[in-house]
Amino acid sequence: MKGMNQTGASTAAFEALRGRLFGLAYRMLGSRAEAEDLVQDAYLRWHQADQQKIENAEAWLVTTTSRLAIDRLRRLKTEREAYVGPWLPDPIVAHARPPDYDLDLAADLSIAFLTLLERLAPDERAAFLLHDVFDVGYGEIAAILERNEAATRQVVHRARERVRGDRKRFEVTETAKTVMLQKFMSAMDARDEQALLALFAPDASWTADGGGKTAAAPHPIVGNTRIARLAIGLRERFWADNRTLEVSTINGEPGLCIRDGGRLVATMSISTDGERIFEVYAVVNPDKLA
Predict the structure, then answer these.
(1) Pair 175, 247: CB distance under 8 Å
(2) 79, 96, 99: which is closest to 27 by C-alpha?
(3) Is 189 exposed, middle or buried (0-12, 13-18, 19+ CB in 10 A)?
(4) Fewer CB within 10 Å, N side or C side of the chain?
């Protein structure tokens, strides 16, 4: 009976942290399936460990999840280098907010942010996320990376410079972003090239991830003129009677979902200052939309 109670308490302790662990694993890997597998691996290791020797369950689980994610990301490197066309993270489409939204992490869940993280080496990505997103101290991160604290501070600093330096930070409300998406839908429906040109910044980019499974540009499209023509072309060539385009929650912020009947066939996320769109991230790889 005592063993059963301990097992129940152990499971409860893990489940209380599952959302946080998934949030870390997903931000590390950019893949829902890989993140779920990794969290399950951490769960098995948690139950195999001698928990009487574990002083802090959260620290142990975050350390285990981080190390597993670093190893997994190293193994995924070759696979992603061979990927057909641009690689984008799996979108998380939800009617509700993500499980760790109340931790004030939604801005660091966006497709734009996760795409920037791809520039970092696995150790850098873990250190940056743990410190700047999950508020883990340098000492704990040093133990996870098996480095001294001074070296860890340098890793976090370099990663922050690489990510923050290239990141467009806009203070945009959900309402303002929704309005921009609605303007885009209206302009595309009307095949209004001038409205689309005005909506996108002159140097805007459109990145599409088809993974070689469906039609998508093999490289990012740059410039509002090219993007306007692309949007109109997509509307004219690929629209169907049962196809719908609607604003949904994608990675914790407003984005667009395209569905054929009930089947999700594309998601679109944008970076905007509320006046113009700077980046579009379109995921059309069916493997990422299941």
Answers:
(1) no
(2) 99
(3) exposed
(4) N
Residue 178, classed as helix, strand or coil, is helix
Strand order from edge to edge, sheet including 253-260: 93-94, 243-250, 253-260, 263-272, 277-283, 200-209, 221-222
Nearest to 88 by CA among 259, 211, 226, 3: 211
Task: Report yes or no: 204 and 222 within 8 Å, Cβ to Cβ.
Answer: yes
Q: DSSP letter at 100? A: T
> How do strand 243-250 and strand 253-260 relate by DSSP bridges?
antiparallel
Structure tokens at 27: 């931000």
Contacts of 104 (CB under 8 A, 6+ apart): none
For the chain, domain boundaries: 2-166, 174-288
State in words which class domain 2-166 has: mainly alpha
In the DSSP assignment, the letter for residue 90 is P
> pLDDT tens digits for the chain (290 residues)?
445 466 778 889 999 999 999 999 999 999 999 999 999 999 999 999 888 888 899 999 999 999 999 999 999 988 898 999 999 999 999 865 555 544 444 558 899 999 999 999 999 999 999 999 899 999 999 999 999 999 999 999 999 999 887 666 677 889 999 999 999 999 999 999 999 999 999 999 999 999 999 989 999 999 999 999 999 998 887 777 788 899 999 998 999 999 998 899 999 999 999 999 999 999 999 999 98
Residue 2 burial by CB count (10 A; 0-12/13-18/19+): exposed, middle or buried?
A: exposed
Residues whose CB falls within 8 Å of the CB of residue 226, separated by 6 or more in sequence, listed in order: 206
| 31: amino acid identity, one letter | S
**Inter-residue contact 20 to 10 (CB < 8 Å):** no
CATH code for 174-288?
3.10.450.50
